[in-house]
Amino acid sequence: MKTLRILMLAVLFASCHLDALFKGAGGGAGGGGSPAGGPKARLTFADQPSQVTAGQVLAPVRVAVLDSAGQPLTDYTGAVTIALANAGGATLAGTQSVDVVGGVAAFTDLTIDKAGSYALRATATGAATATSAPIEVIPPPPPPPGATHLGFERQPPPQAAQAGSVLAPVLVAALDASENVVSTFTGLVTLDLSSNPGGAALAGSRTANAVDGVATFSDLSLDKAGSGYRLRATSPGLSDATSASFDITSPPPPPGGATHLGFSDQPAITQVGRPTWPVRVTVYDDAGNQVRSFTGDVTLSIGYNPSGGTLTGGGTITMDLGLAGVAEWDNVTIDQPGNGYILRATSPGLRDGFSDPLDITADPPPPPNGATGLGYMQVPTTTRAGDVIAPAVKIVGVNGNTGTVAPGYNGPVWVSMGANPTGATLSGTRRVMAVNGWATFPDLRIDKPGRYTLRATAWPLNYKASPPFDITAAAPAPGLRTGVKPARPGAKP
Questions:
Q1: How confident is the model at residue 39 (pLDDT cuts 50, 70, 90)?
Q2: Residues 440 and 420 in one domain
Q3: Residue 88's closest CA among 139, 142, 137?
């Protein structure tokens, strides 16, 4: 009898664990999506400073938009707004509402005017808010004796520069009451726009420490045309200075009808600090044709930065006719491991291009083990907007020579939007580690009706697009029927 009781307890224990396992499996990564009616996205601070001097520009603050499984929502459209969570009499200045690009909103000109400990709060439509870690704001050091105010020793060039082009170097000096340069001044000087007729963003190194009393700004640019821009220079303890006005003109239209950039060779999964294979970006027209006559600058940077990594080997390539509209970077590395880095290609006057998600591993990445590409064993099917795509999408690593599943492939597989005519958002578990060649995506959702394709990637394996599928309008709320008036209280059935 004692043996029977022990056996019954063991069966009960196992059944409880199996029940919990099956319930957990239905919820996807991290326990599933958002509660019914809750946000389908959430915000997180990807980069923020821990300390700054009062009145000085904070190091770039980057807020990422994630889905319920913690994956970047690179198709999110909208703006993120930032504010002080605990102002305490302090003022947050700078651009406080920024459009999301590639799943990230970057704030580059924020300042806090009083010493203390503060946190930032980020909000966006349809996304759960986020609060930053504490930021310590320290008092500024006093200026050296004699320095009273700032002055522009070299003004922005009065002749019009093109939007996106670097201005000639601007010099700001610390001056005494007699307008002499105070050569002992080595403090930090910050530039921003005091007059912004075109609504431009001021890019480049906007803070600089003075050398022999003079701060040099050599890489400033503005991204929009306008007449009558002015710069303002500030430094703690000194009176501000305002520059003479200057103009910015629109760049000439790109040659050959060029409209946008696209990654024609994607970065491959690689170990931290090691170069990925060559990354190529091609210039296209609206019809998707390569524009071989394009000349201009194309810049490669990180568009989504999940681990605060630094890109080496990117930067700007000046295109000439010999490149036939294709820019190539041969030695691209990222110095921090993380899943889901996305590279961004930009060029003045063209729509940006974004790479597929890229994993940077701490150890050597998993080998392909016979896999040369990807295939769909269960394609996405017609589903209502906001509902989980069922049956679950299943993707396998395949050997292109034999057309069979490569059971040795156990690397990561990413799913992203392919054809996306409505700008919809794909949420759910978008990265799955293959097991015996198989990767199952249990909780994918698309939020808008339309006809779409998915794009499966596991570089260096060849990507695979799904067949087109439809997302239909969401079901009406329970208890509501179109065209039927609700019954009056007390009315007979």
A1: low
A2: yes
A3: 137
pLDDT of residue 479: 55
**68, 85, 173, 87: which is closest to 127 by C-alpha?**
68
Domain boundary at 117, 138, 159, which?
138
Q: Is residue 19 part of a domain?
A: no
Q: Give the three-state DSSP class for 321.
A: helix
Looking at the structure of the chain, the number of domains it has is 4
Give the domain extent around 355: 255-361
Q: Which residue has the tokens 């912004």?
A: 196
- Can you give the CATH number for the domain in which 207 is found? 2.60.40.10
pTM for this predicted structure: 0.68
Q: What is the Cα–Cα distance from 97 to 123, expressed in whole angstroms?
A: 9
Helix (H) or strand (E) holding 110: none
Query: Quick one: tokens of 27?
Result: 């919820």
Virtual torsion, Cα 124, 130, 134, 138, nearest 10 deg: 0
For 441, phi then psi, to 5°, come to: -110, 100
Model pLDDT for residues 388-429, shown as the tens digit of each residue = 999 999 999 998 778 799 999 999 999 999 999 988 888 889
Q: What band does 478 get if pLDDT is binned at 50, 70 and 90?
A: low
Of 29, 37, 104, 23, nearest to 427 by C-alpha is 29
Q: Which residues are registered as beta bridge partners of 440?
A: 394
**Residue 227 confidence (pLDDT) above 70:** yes
Is 456 contained in some domain?
yes
AA identity, residue 6: I
With CA atoms as reference, report the closest residue to 284 among 255, 242, 315.
Answer: 255
Give the separation between CA 381 and CA 454, rounded to whole angstroms.
11
Q: Which residues contact 141 (CB under 8 A, 6 or more apart)?
A: 187, 236
Classify strands 246-249 and 431-433 as parallel, antiparallel or unpaired. Answer: unpaired
Share of the chain residues as helix, strand and coil, in percent rounded to the nearest 5: 5, 45, 50
Instruction: Encode 234-265: b = buried (16+ Cβ within 10 Å), e = exposed.
Output: bbbebeebebeebbbeeeeebbbebbbbbbbb
Q: Alpha-carbon distance 458 to 248, whole Å? A: 43
Pair (347, 277) in one structural domain: yes
Whether 2 maps to a domain, the answer reads no
Side-chain half-sphere CA neighbours of 109 within 13 A: 20
User: What is the pLDDT confidence band of residue 25, given thresholds at 50, 70 and 90?
Assistant: very low
Backbone torsion region of residue 446, taken as left when φ is above 0, otherwise alpha when ψ lies between -120 and 50, otherwise beta: beta
- Apex 408 CA angle, 362 and 277, nearest 5: 45
Answer whether 321's CB lies under 8 Å from 295's CB.
yes
